[in-house]
Amino acid sequence: MTVNPGAFSSRPAVAVTGLGAVSSLGIGIEDNFSALKAGKSGIKPITRFSTEGLRTTIAGTINFITFEPWTAIGFTHRLADMAAREAVAMAGIDSGRFDGPLVLAAPPVELEWPQRLELDRLAGEFDEAASYDRLLRLSRNHRDSALYDLTLFGKIADQLADSFGTRGLPITLSTACASGATAVQLGVEAIRRGEAERVLVVGADGSVGPEAVIRFSLLSALSTQNAIPERASKPFSKDRDGFVMAEGAGALVLESVDAAKARGAEILGYVLGCGEKADDFHRTRSSPDGSPIIATIRAGLADAGLAPEEISYINAHGTSTPENDKMEYTGLAAVFGDALASTPISSNKSMIGHTLTAAGAIEAVFSILTMREGVLPPTINYDVPDPAIPLDTVPNVARSADVATVISNSFGFGGQNVSLVFGREPRR
């Protein structure tokens, strides 16, 4: 792989100065990373709603945060706010005075049964269809802001922007399972273009509800190994059978290195590269030749100016679905070649589950912590290796290592793929 050093000399280096995380393992980066290092699982039986008749009855729900009445929009906002507050505080920026834009990755807004019942309560009538046409009719007749808020995609970002004092129009995006990584990429690009000195990036998802579980189940995407929940997510194992839905939020404060140094901020790490590639093969499946995944990984490395052998650790997308894990291996093998055999790779999802739109941001946070602490989180439940996927998965037990660089993969339904490259030091 040829690297052109001159390609990086004129653009601002992007530093990470704040981190925040909430997952099924706990609140805050300290509790989360301690649990990751210990190989602890946050997967548990679903208690938020009845799972009678469902094939999947487990998830990485965050039950230790009380939120009533539960709605996906409301709970996602709560998680996003918690992670963002930790990141902004760590960056040493006054709450309510964040002088930069906000980029939020959030789940798509849909009318689920809790929202439909709320519509009935507000309208004083019951209609099983609860269509969008009915929502528009009710909005015209009742002029109730609560109806408007139920389906406003940008509502969470608006509220966060008000809370943190961010500048400009807040961006909300939803690119499936790559959303959190896409949000990081947009923040990086804004700083590189000179449009912002700092960006608050948040990825959040609190949408484990009955309809979401049913939809993914109908796609045959979810694990049905309900008997021992903490052992259901098993990326790269031969007996993997699907991902485990989960909730969480990750937040990062990104800054140009000059801006961070000017205010005396501690730099936690650097975003060295971002790669992306669309895949229009299928709404859930990857292209069989792996070309979009291969192109995404190569683009991330090229943007960072690094060769595959210069990567210390791979934070895998590693969902635990039969096809995704195979395709990720295929893509990595094509790019890394012989170097893959000596490059450790593990999946945080084995412990926290798949946090969907939040995953890329949470795993970005964990990637920075992996470099700072010099500890590789394990892939737990790796007891039956898949001979078709020969990887050093850091099986079951964390490992100390000198981690100078990390590539973190996010491959979403609909062919939305992003690879982020992080470094302990800036690009020279």
Features of the shown structure:
13 helices; 11-stranded mixed sheet; two-stranded antiparallel ribbon; Peroxisomal Thiolase, Chain A, domain 1; 428 residues; 18% strand; single chain; alpha/beta
Q: What features would you describe in this structure?
A:
The longest helix is centred in the N-terminal third of the chain and has 19 residues. The protein has 13 helices and 15 strands. Strand 1 and strand 2 form a beta hairpin. It is globular. By secondary structure, the protein is an alpha/beta fold. The strands form three sheets. Strands 1, 2, 5, 6, 7, 8, 9, 10, 11, 14 and 15 form an eleven-stranded mixed sheet that branches. A two-stranded antiparallel ribbon has the order 3-4. The protein has a two-stranded antiparallel sheet with strand order 12-13. It has two domains: 371 residues, Peroxisomal Thiolase, Chain A, domain 1 (3-Layer(aba) Sandwich), CATH 3.40.47.10; 34 residues, no CATH class.
The helix-strand sequence is EEHEEHEHHHHEHEHEHEHEHEHHEEEE
In CATH, the homologous superfamily of the largest domain goes by the name Thiolase/Chalcone synthase
Report Rg. 21 Å
Name of the level-1 CATH class of the largest domain: Alpha Beta
Using the alpha-carbon principal axes, give the shape: globular
Multimer state: single chain
Count of distinct strands: 15
CATH architecture name of the largest domain: 3-Layer(aba) Sandwich
CATH fold naming of the largest domain: Peroxisomal Thiolase, Chain A, domain 1
Brief overview:
Pathway: Lipid metabolism; fatty acid biosynthesis. By secondary structure, the chain is an alpha/beta fold.
